[in-house]
Amino acid sequence: MQLSNAVIAHDAEAQLSRIKAPTLVTFGRHDVATSTRFADLMKGKKRNSELLIFEGCAHAPIYKNVAEFNEKTLYC
Amino acid sequence: MPATPFWWRNFTCISLDLRGTGEGDETEGAYSTEVLADDVAAFMRGLGIPKAHISGLSLGAAIGMWLAAKCPEMVTSLSLHRGWAKTDAYLRTVIEGFQVMAKAMGAFPKCRFLHSSGVSDTSTVCRQAGLH
Lengths: 76, 132
Hints:
The structure holds two protein chains of two kinds. In chain A, 33% of the residues lie in helices and 16% in strands. Chain A is α+β, with helices and mostly antiparallel strands. Chain A has one domain (2-73). In chain A, strand 1 (23-28), helix 2 and strand 2 (49-54) form a beta-alpha-beta unit. Chain B has a domain at 4-87 and 123-128. Chain B has five helices and four strands; from the N terminus they run H-E-H-E-H-E-H-H-E. Chain B has helices at residues 4-7, 33-46, 59-70, 89-105, 112-116; strands at residues 11-16, 52-57, 75-81, 122-128. Chain B is globular and about 45 Å long. At the A-B interface, helix 1, strand 1, helix 3 and helix 4 of A face helix 2, helix 3, strand 3 and helix 4 of B.
């Protein structure tokens, strides 16, 4: 219950500009809870950030399409 | 995370049980994503990991944002999967719906409810193999 309250209270909007690390942001096209409505803000205007959207997936492309997820998110 | 075995080919990967989940201890008081990020930073310091690739899914992504903002020197790269910057009315309603159902079940089963729908909240710390 405490973790769910942490989700409800989450507000890191003011923190985004403090992030300096190269950032990959991904969403599932059919995610309802954390949908692509958050994408623009999450990616921001940083040159070192990238946005990926997985088609045909909801909240968990990492489970639904493991091979595609690995292929597109790993830079090894 | 199912991706973790794949990542192990090139990285040393550690997935954390957040406080109140898995084998993580429950503590009194309110949790926040900032406090949970502090937990991750303390965990890394405790293991002598000065810097790592940080990958977070859902709540893990929310935590990763705080970690990267507060401790930029500890984050080599940041992967935010299904994250969000600030909870909006819709997401609040979804989570409050989970809470109502959890209360009706008698207890909040440590994210099992979330896991059962195929969703997991995970923070993963990856350190490139052979590097410090």
